[in-house]
Amino acid sequence: xxxxxxxxxxxxxxxxxxxxxxxxxxxxxxxxxxxxxxxxxxxxxxxxxxxxxxxxxxxxxxxxxxxxxxxxxxxxxxxxxxxxxxxxxxxxxxxxxxxxxxxxxxxxxxxxxxxxxxxxxxxxxxxxxxxxxxxxxxxxxxxxxxxxxxxxxxxxxxxxxxxxxxxxxxxxxxxxxxxxxxxxxxxxxxxxxxxxxxxxxxxxxxxxxxxxxxxxxxxxxxxxxxxxxxxxxxxxxxxxxxxxxxxxxxxxxxxxxxxxxxxxxxxxxxxxxxxxxxxxxxxxxxxxxxxxxxxxxxxxxxxxxxxxxxxxxxxxxxxxxxxxxxxxxxxxxxxxxxxxxxxxxxxxxxxxxxxxxxxxxxxxxxxxxxxxxxxxxxxxxxxxxxxxxxxxxxxxxxxxxxxxxxxxxxxxxxxxxxxxxxxxxxxxxxxxxxxxxxxxxxxxxxxxxxxxxxxxxxxxxxxxxxxxxxxxxxxxxxxxxxxxxxxxxxxxxxxxxxxxxxxxxxxxxxxxxxxxxxxxxxxxxxxxxxxxxxxxxxxxxxxxxxxxxxxxxxxxxxxxxxxxxxxxxxxxxxxxxxxxxxxxxxxxxxxxxxxxxxxxxxxxxxxxxxxxxxxxxxxxxxxxxxxxxxxxxxxxxxxxxxxxxxxxxxxxxxxxxxxxxxxxxxxxxxxxxxxxxxxxxxxxxxxxxxxxxxxxxxxxxxxxxxxxxxxxxxxxxxxxxxxxxxxxxxxxxxxxxxxxxxx
Length: 743
What we know:
Elements: H1 2-11, H2 13-31, H3 49-61, E1 68-73, H4 93-107, E2 112-117, E3 134-141, H5 145-159, E4 161-163, E5 166-171, H6 173-207, H7 210-234, H8 244-272, H9 277-286, H10 288-304, H11 312-343, H12 365-375, H13 377-392, E6 400-401, H14 413-424, E7 433-437, H15 445-456, E8 461-466, E9 469-472, E10 475-478, E11 493-499, H16 506-517, E12 525-528, H17 529-563, H18 567-592, H19 597-600, E13 608-609, H20 612-642, H21 645-674, H22 680-712, H23 721-730
Parallel strand pairs: 6-13
Antiparallel strand pairs: 1-3, 1-5, 2-3, 4-5, 7-11, 7-12, 8-9, 8-11, 9-10
Helix pairs in contact: 1-9, 1-11, 2-7, 2-11, 5-6, 6-7, 6-8, 6-21, 7-8, 7-11, 8-9, 8-10, 8-11, 8-21, 9-11, 10-11, 10-17, 10-20, 12-21, 12-22, 13-18, 13-22, 16-17, 17-18, 17-20, 18-20, 18-22, 20-21, 20-22, 21-22
């Protein structure tokens, strides 16, 4: 196949280029507005208990967990706590009247439901700040994520600011996720503004030619623009996260650079060796093109493992990643050879400075490094492995959570509301649990009150609101009010359990599990922040073995089909896992424990997002294989020519050393540019992947690969005879020596 592509590209270069540009233009035109169709959620399992409870709340009660929170302040604050009803307190007549009126106005807004607040619920203490100058109003905006976000923004624009004697600020999950989406869009523009100019400058330095240096951006641009059309198509069938745009741009640009470096360098190498233009195109397509094809498939398979998880967030990354990776690989393998055929020796045009002289492959830094390692392979392998395990040890203490307001930049107004609730109130109204009794026909009010009393005694629970009133610490503190009727349906009932602790934490998980385990008068379902965290972790844990098996298994098979060896694929999988262990340890040390939080401008929550290690594993595993395949291909070329393990490893490492180092550095710059995001989740992925790429392209490639291959010797390329025959018949191998291609 690659042989045919190379020959066709040599003869019909203009046709391929024109078709590629037209296809990308069409896809970009169609998908240009895809950003408007993306969602900012997708972190929950739609089949979990918490999701089922939320569905019942919506259908039976037209209710749900509060996603709109209004913080009303008298603007006094800063002094001693104010007594009830004192001037400046939220209970003084003017503030109370303004608060009551605000509740009525909010309740009358289209799309806003179950509005209740401090002034309408009988002044429960948890809804009043500890200094008495702030109070809360809770509400729910109905609809899907897009509808909720639109209404939330309208309410913020209308009510944020001064309302009578009260200063009003709006928060809640509706605005948190809306702002996450808006911030992600701004961050994407900033990252592109940073990454593209720096990358172009470095490409010019690497290639010493403006023409060659510009080609990687062409590949990345075609891949990114084309993927927009794919994403828009996918929005018709599934929820696609707004963060899919970040992975599209970062991987499209990064892998466009990687694949172009492999292809352009090989084409220039073939021209320098004296081959004709057509012959150089053919050779490049069947050698570097083979490497790019294997790499693209491997990265795509790694990302495809994300599809087994029931979270729309991860599936969005899978869809976007698979599309942009395969398109980037296709452009590199098909379109670049066509461009080479059109350019010929002009690929070196517009030179910048003097071009580096070609080395024989036996006198460079990487050649000397490989020989040094292979003289002492066992102690070096053990030493580097020990270092990586030590770096990975913090991951043993990992604690998982879900994204919340603290993912937003520290100066976010929405985050400021959530921070005030977290620090100035006795309860966390933003993290309520909803306990749904689907069949409450046999549950009388006495049994309901007894259950609410028991719930209020659970560790971490601040207050329970139910049909029969409000309960705190095992006591009924407020009788039922007219608004309490919202907790009753035709044959069902529900209770609101407000925590006193951070719901997105290990303590929140413990509380949610205790609520679910508490004896109830009828079967119950529990939803809410902490319950969603429990369910999300359970869903991820259940899918993790299958995802890991897909990544490792398919990668092993692809490498076997490529190189006809059992040991080389096993070694590649093990070394990738070892490298990722160190990366995960660093992420815990930095983002969970908060080291460097000041430098990187984020707030440590004491947890890592449940999806982040999985996302980083699948992407980083694929990217690591990118360099592994490139290195192994050149080593195998040399081994087939000489049969000498030591020289083939040293020469293979020397021939790929500069290119892989440059590719890793450029990819790391792209990823670090995306790590400038104000969203901690994107910052973590960007920095984590950059670290994984750099570590794999330097420490692992320069020491562990040559050490293990030296220890294995001829066994590197061994396979049982039946498998060897299978690989020779069905494997991914290079074509035979090329013949001159007529143009």
